[in-house]
Amino acid sequence: MRKADTSPEYQPKYKWRETWPGEGHQDFVSVDGDLQFGRIYLDLTTSSRARQWRWAISTILWQRRNILPHNGWAPTGREASRKVEELYEQIKALHGR
């Protein structure tokens, strides 16, 4: 018998807003103050990744060095938000912010 996963669901640290409010898309952007730094959305079109969450870090004006990968897929929206937020925290640390 397989043990059930009892790990708590990731709780985002930053604010997430609908990319197009009121349109009903499963598409969100992350915000830190007035900086929009990432996006997640439910991918319904990529055949090999359909029904997975696509995540990506946005271009950040003060960012001078990249950390890869800066985009990918995750099985859930919460996992995708975790990927974006963790990468953002790494970028902030790399740039002394």
Structural class: alpha+beta
Ends distance? 47 Å
Order of helices and strands: EEEEEH
Strands, count? 5
In the sheet with the most strands, the strands line up as 1-2-3-4-5
Helix fraction bin: 10-25%
Number of helices: 1
Structure description:
- This protein has one domain (15-95).
- 19% of the residues lie in helices and 30% in strands.
- The protein contains 1 helix and 5 strands.
- Strands 1-2-3-4-5 form a 5-stranded antiparallel sheet, covered by helices on one side.
- The radius of gyration is 15 Å and the shape is globular.
Topology:
Elements (H helix, E strand, L loop, with lengths): L14 E4 L8 E6 L2 E9 L8 E6 L13 E4 L2 H18 L3
Antiparallel strand pairs: 1-2, 2-3, 3-4, 4-5
Key phrases:
97 residues; five-stranded antiparallel beta sheet; 1 helix; 5 strands; 19% helix
Give a short synopsis of this structure:
This protein has 97 residues and is an alpha+beta fold.
